[in-house]
Amino acid sequence: MGTIYRCGSRGALGGVRRPHLHPVPSVADRLNAERHELAGAACTQADPEMFFDGTPGAVDMAKQICGSCPVRARCLRLALERGEAFGIFGGLTAEERRDVQRKGVPAA
Question: Which CA distances in Å does 9 have to 15, 16, 18, 20, 104?
Answer without folding.
Answer: 6, 8, 10, 15, 48
